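SAMPLE LOG
Freezer: B-3
Tube label: C17
Construct: single chain, 353 aa
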Amino acid sequence: MTLLERKNTFIQLGHFLSQFASEEINKKDAVLQNDVFFDDMLKQIKKSYEFNGWFTPKNMHFAFKNLSEALTESSLEQWLSAYTINEPKPKTVAIIMAGNIPLVGFHDLLSVLISGHHALVKQSSNDKQFLPFIVSYLQKVEPKFKGCVSFTENKLEDFDAVIATGSDNTARYFDYYFGKYPHIIRKNRNSVAVLTGNESKEELEGLAEDIFRYFGLGCRNVSKIFVPNKYDFDKLFKAVYKWHSVMNLAKYANNYDYNKAIYLMSEFSILENGFLMIKEDTSYSSPIATLFYEYYDDLKQLQNTLKRDSEKIQCIVASGFTKGEIVFGETQKPKLWEYADQVDTVDFLLKLT
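STRUCTURE (predicted):
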């Protein structure tokens, strides 16, 4: 199978997913294999939410929208223009996926397949519905994809390289078992925002998106903000208010109530508005329904601190603070060339021999 054939198949997948990019489902006559897959996709959305209560239809539609916008000819061309992709003898790449947000492991699968390799996938128990379905669609559109992807729930065997995503604890396990193979092993990371107090209403509303999308479960979600002394938190609370409906999800509300009780019993000082707690804390990783903050005196010193802690940080949301910063509201809309942990997955895959 040629690179052009692989690329065109993913473009067709993008067309298919675009039908589910909003709550107003828009069936399109020109989409390939729609007669086979469209109704089943609706069932998969329902089944996924029943299986994992965090995967609300609204968040799944958001994920499909981002994928459909990434899987366009122009986006794929821009991404792949940085590489020379020959037709290698395919290697089998084991992919151990996280399951914190819908289809979080898709980019790894896309990278493996677009590079001309085969994938052996071990999914998270929290996100098992969509990827096999999507692979079935790819194989129906392009039969040459058959045999390129396999799924397993057992011990990984017969592979040549590994891409594994997990916690700091599981990363130690991954290092022990997979260290002898070419590998990418990802650990816990969190995202932060640097505020000056001069942010516009629109920027703060964008920050709210970065905080609450997927209920804050993604490594690209902002879990901590850095603010100047005497920062006015009222502006932030007003900007995030439109997300108050997160409390309609029992799982989120239960976490809010539990963490609030812990903070009150421990006599921690918190600010809260009924659906978000803001707590001063030096940690980067905050619990669900909680946003940590830390004061800074000097932006240059803060730059040095975040550079020192770069292995703990996925994204920095800011305006004019540092190179590579993310615009407010864009953390959960990564481009294909914005790699997790800043490790170029395609470059890694192309070097497999």
